[in-house]
Amino acid sequence: MTQIETTTTPQAAPAPTHMRAPVPVQTRSERFTSTEVSDFPAVTGREPMWKYTPVARIQELTTGELDGSPYVYDVTAAKGVSTLWVGREDSRIGRAGQPEDRASANAWTAFEQALLVSISADLSGDRREVTLTRSTLGGAPRAAHTVVEVAEGATATLILQNTGAAHLTENVEFLLGKDADLTVVSLQEWDDDALHVAAHFAELAEGARIKHVAITLGGGVVRLNPSAHLAGARSDAELLGAYFADATQHLEQQVYVYHDGPETRSRVTYKGALQGEGARTVWIGDVLIGPKAVGTDTYEQNRNLVLTDGARADSVPNLEIETGDIVGAGHASATGRFDDEQLFYLQSRGIPEEEARRLVVRGFLAEIVQQIGSPALQERLQAKIEAELEATSVTASAPSAGAEH
Fold it and tell me: Is residue 12, in this structure, part of any structural domain at all?
């Protein structure tokens, strides 16, 4: 994909005091947060955090009344893993983060009980895999809250599988103890008209590691915003995402990584494909390196393939650094069609052009899927992506745009 360099233009002289507009929030960590929906103004779509979102389509989740009662879910059995509904007064609720927007606050205000997933340490050291499935939420506006507590030294893979109908806004918290290691896969395979707005908050203690994988293949509007607070020294966060948008689908991710403790590391990689009239994807990546986060090592990137005319991808990487003592920091973004050299290579070996294009897309998204670590799930997701590709003809190459820093 073509890379372009960005330049900084000189700043104009400041306006007289009586002409200045209110000073905007200068850093991501200074954003207003509250667990009360009434503390947030109505969403208009002009706000920075909402300007890419089709707010009219999700209005019932930002302003309407929500059903916050417990729901039916299925969970696979695993040693040392338990689930339990807990009251709002539970001390673990709110430890990982608090709402930054009205949809998240509406869910927080409305939920009656939180689903607690407890993962205890296993002396054998084996990685346990647990799947929590929600498939019967229905089409009524609903709120939910989930807390995942991972004990010190515990190791596990948690798959959050979402299918069927849903009009859902929710908050999910991940609390990782010292040296805990959690892989969480959030899988969105909703019905075509489903609405899903979610905020994921992760709090990492010393030496803890999280791999957060967001796979979005279904839903009418899906907005999933994961954040990771690397509070403990030498904590590590890997945030991965793959998404495939069809006609009229809006798939959005706003990622936030806050390096707070020393010698922390993060890697963010999101890749998406779009096809069909009105297909839209949004990726915003915010990385903040705080003043105490000496020795930070971080890199974020987003790649998008636009497969047909009428689709649009927005990609906005942001990096804030408040200490000069770091190992490295950078970001990259690119959106385009195909790599002509890859296509030529495949066609020169007798592969028809249309099949060659499918192979390129399949390999493009496979980089994310193959890092999940669950062979059965990876195989199923690859088949799902293959079905998406079979549904349309992949178009010829066109100019691409991107930036690297």
Answer: no
Q: Give the residue from 95, 140, 100, 92 showing the smallest Cα distance to 116.
A: 92
3-state secondary structure (DSSP) of residue 19: helix
Looking at residue 293, the DSSP 8-state letter turns out to be -
Q: The domain containing residue 233 runs over which residues? A: 26-338
pLDDT tens for the chain, 405 residues: list them. Answer: 434 333 333 444 444 444 444 455 667 788 899 999 999 999 999 999 999 999 999 999 999 899 999 999 999 999 999 999 999 999 999 999 999 999 999 999 999 999 999 999 987 777 899 999 999 999 999 999 999 999 999 999 999 999 999 999 999 999 999 999 999 999 999 999 999 999 999 999 999 999 999 999 999 999 999 999 999 999 999 999 999 999 999 999 999 999 999 999 999 999 999 999 999 999 999 999 999 999 999 999 999 999 888 999 999 999 999 998 999 999 999 998 866 777 777 778 888 877 777 788 888 899 999 999 889 899 999 888 888 777 665 554 444 455 555
Beta bridge partner(s), residue 203: 175, 229
Which residues are registered as beta bridge partners of 212?
Answer: 184, 239
Answer yes or no: are the C-beta atoms of 148 and 115 closer than 8 Å: no
Burial (CB count within 10 angstroms: exposed 0-12, middle 13-18, buried 19+), residue 7? exposed
> What would the two tokens of residue 166 be?
């849903």
Give the helix ranges, DSSP H, for 181-335.
Answer: none
Quick check: is 400 in a domain? no
C-alpha to C-alpha distance for 14 and 191, rounded to whole angstroms: 51
Domain count, the chain: 1
Does residue 273 fall inside a structural domain? yes
In a domain, 228, yes or no: yes
Q: Give the C-alpha separation, 244 to 361, whole Å.
A: 10
C-alpha–C-alpha distance, residues 94 and 100, integer Å: 13
- C-alpha distances out from residue 137 to 133, 199, 321, Å: 11, 18, 41
Specify the pTM.
0.89
